[in-house]
Structures are given as structure tokens and as C-alpha cells.
Amino acid sequence: MRRLRRVKIVATLGPASQDRDVVVRLFEAGVDVFRINMSHGSHDNLRERVQTIRSIEKEQGRPIGILVDLQGPKLRVGEFKGGSAELKKGEKFVLDASKTPGDAKRVYLPHPEILAALAPGHTILIDDGKLALHVIEASAEKATCLVDVGGKISNRKGVSLPDTDIPVSAMTSKDRSDLEAALHVGVDWIAVSFVQRPEDIADVKKTARGRALVLAKIEKPQAIARLDEIIEISDALMVARGDLGVEMPVEKVPGLQKRITRSARRLGKPVVVATQMLESMITAPVPTRAEVSDVATAVFEGADAVMLSAESAAGLYPVESVKMMNRIAEEVECDPLYRSIITAQRAAPEATGADAIAVAARDVAETLDLKAIVAWTASGSTAFRIARERPQPPILALTPKLDTARRLCMVWGVHAVVTKDADDLDDMAKRACKFSNREGFSSAGERIIIVAGVPFGTPGATNMVRIAFTGEEK
């Protein structure tokens, strides 16, 4: 099943998509990667969903990527007498270490490390920014705040701290348990929530040991401050616009989306744009025009993937949401302006042989109007590098490793096929032509360009290009 678009679609599984039949329909509608959110569900639920996806993958004969999203450190207030209280603008409100039920004057904050990190002037946002306070006095036992934006506060509402460097890892004990469970069942990507520093990603990669690639969710101001370092160590990025728009002024989010997308692309790291892309389709069969424009903007910008969250996990129209996203992406990529925008964003290659080969392959393919760029790749790095160049011809990745093919489901423009490694140069060319024809990229007698590393089976050794007539398979 070859997609007619380059950008990939990530869809979250949930109550609306727990039936196997719905998952099949989601894949057929256009999903390339399924996201499993560990904020909801057990390890048994994770195992069942992975087994379902893998059985569908086998039936469909196409690799399917699985992304597990770790919950991260969720900060929440304690509970209130009667379940809630009303905070009034201009009044004082205290967050403290006492477990006594709260009222309109104070509440328990069950995170002593956060109380110790707060300082006068720091902003505190509660319930996704619906309430805003700032600290006027702080100690290890309590933080006295002034209410800037009041309203109703209730039990266990979330707390965001845009000005505070939280002195804890992005990995909680729950996350470590979830990570081990995800690696055990063989998922392809791990998303790390509330990343603040590159060490947060290094921690997860140390545990993963290459068994899955690691994606950093950019949703905190602290991550923006160290963005280049985080991109460098991560395997991919996600623009998590929901929490990013809570902890930073919402008007800054579009510019940050472009900055993150372009920075990640410059370093050849896949980038996913997420949150509220087709939000109205949770309850409506069609999106708003603004949402259509939002998805289109991400595609025009060259994002590797666009993501559905509640739309596919809990909405009334999960399959319709995927079909809509697929149609938007296909239409954008046919637009006369699309190619000029994508081309204008190209960055200079790094001074490595592999990058030089990738750029050369793109230039030759576009100059000669070749039908496809075929990349032989064991680790996936060759396909990643070619995708970074956003070539006009499609990218066909041939790999002997199923896990590599699944990981490439997240990468712009890459259609991966699992096959045994090439025996020699002639076998490499012959089978590249065969698969190019079989997968619908070319017809007999048309030309393709082949990129590979010699000797075969050596990860990262991209050092060869070859033009071939697809008639060679005969």
C-alpha cells in the first residue's frame, strides 16, 4: 500500500479506536504510525494494542510504526474541602507542604522539590492556564502567591511552571516502568514528555540502548532555551503545541513551530507537528477552515509527520479525521507553490561523505528526472539523510531489518520495503529495479538512482551512487 503523499500521519489510539476493525480502517485511511499514550492505559493494554498492530502489519504486508508516549512528571495540586474553591484576582493564595484539604486560601502541592525551586516572580499556571498566579514569597515549605487570573480550582488540577527549572528528571518511576514495558514488546519510537535539558533524552537513550529511537517533545520554555543541544542528541522532535501554548504566550507558538521544524530538518532529524490539528472533528464530521489551514501549514513547512490526538483516540469520527488529514496533505503536495517552498528551505550539507552522496543523489535525480531514489540501508541512516534533502522523486528504502522499516514510517517521503541485503553490486542494482517497478515507482526501461554503502551491511557507510535502467531486472 503506497501512500500518495510524502508527509506521514501519526494517530493516537484510545477508546474510540480500541477495536481491531477500527485500527485496520485507520491504517487503510492513511495512518503510518500509531501512538500509544501511557498517560492512559496499563501495560496489558499496551501489549494488546501492539499485538493488534503487528497482526495488521502482517496482514497488510507493510511496516507500521508504533510510538509510545511517556507521561512524564505531571504536577498537580492536592484536594479541596468540597472538591473545589474559587480564587479571586488580587488575593493571596498559598501552595504548601501540608496534606490538609485546601480552600480559597491554600492547597497542598505534593512536590517538595517544586516548592524548593520556586522563587519570587515565578509564574504558576493551573488547569492548562485557566488560572494564573505569581510567587511573592517562597521557602522550602510554602510559596505565597498573588492571583493574577482567578476562577474555580478543583481537585488534582495540573500545574505548569514556565519560569521554573524543575530539578527533577523528565523520567518518573512510572515512566521507567512504562519504558521497559514498551521496549519489551518491541515498539519503534519512544516520546519523552516535558523535556527540559539534553540529559533528559540521554537518560532514556541509555535505557533504550538502540532498541527504539527516542523523540523529544518540545513543550517547555526550558527546552526552547536549549533547543540545539536537545535536537543534537534526539532521534526526532515533536512540536507539542498544547503544553507549549500553556507555558508560553500562544502567539509565540507558530514562530516556534517553524523554528523547531527548520532546526530539526537542518540536522536531518524527523519532526512531528502535534496537538489540536483537527480538534473540532472530535465532535463534528468536518473540520474548521482554520484547522485545514493549520495542517496545510505544517505540510508546506516540510514537517515529517502531522499527528492526531483526541481526534482518533476519543472522537466520534476517528477514521474520517485520518481521511481528512490525508486529503489535505495530498492536496498541499500537489500545489504549485509546495515544491518551491520546500526547496527554498534546503540547508547546506554537513561536511561528510554520506551527506555529500545524499545531496548528489538528489541533484542527479532531479536533473535527469529519475523516477525514484532507491536507498539500501541497514540502520536507516541513508534514508534519513536523503529525506533531509526533500527530493522531488520519491524515496524507496530497501532494508534487511524490519525494525528499521518500521522506524522509517515516521520519516518524510520514505517508502520502506524489507528484503535481504544485496550480495554484490549487480544484485543491488537488479533488485533495486525490481522493487521500484513492483512498488509502482517506475516501469521497465525507466531510470532510477541507487544509493548504498559498500561493503554491504556496514551501518552508516553511505558511499556510492549508481544510475540504473529498471529493465536491468530482466
Q: How are the SSEs placed, and which strands pair?
A:
Blueprint: E1 8-12, H1 20-29, E2 33-37, H2 43-60, E3 65-69, E4 84-87, E5 92-96, E6 106-108, H3 112-117, E7 123-126, E8 131-138, E9 142-149, E10 151-154, E11 159-160, H4 173-185, E12 189-192, H5 198-208, E13 213-218, H6 221-225, H7 227-233, E14 236-240, H8 241-247, H9 253-266, E15 271-274, H10 289-300, E16 305-308, H11 310-313, H12 318-334, H13 336-344, H14 353-367, E17 373-376, H15 381-388, E18 395-399, H16 402-407, E19 414-418, H17 425-438, E20 447-453, E21 462-469
Parallel strand pairs: 1-2, 1-16, 2-3, 3-12, 5-6, 12-13, 13-14, 14-15, 15-16, 17-18, 17-20, 18-19
Antiparallel strand pairs: 4-10, 5-9, 7-8, 7-11, 8-9, 20-21
Helix pairs in contact: 1-12, 2-4, 5-7, 10-12
Describe this structure in words.
With 474 residues, the chain is an alpha/beta fold. It folds into 3 domains: 8-72 and 169-338, TIM Barrel, CATH 3.20.20.60; 81-160, M1 Pyruvate Kinase, Domain 3; 353-473, 3-Layer(aba) Sandwich (Pyruvate Kinase, Chain: A, domain 1). It is built from 17 helices and 21 strands. Strands 1-2-3-12-13-14-15-16 form an 8-stranded parallel barrel, surrounded by 7 helices. The radius of gyration is 24 Å and the shape is elongated. 46% of the residues are buried.
Which short descriptors sum up this protein?
six-stranded mixed β-sheet, 37% helix, alpha/beta, Pyruvate Kinase, Chain: A, domain 1, TIM Barrel, M1 Pyruvate Kinase, Domain 3, eight-stranded parallel beta barrel, 3 domains
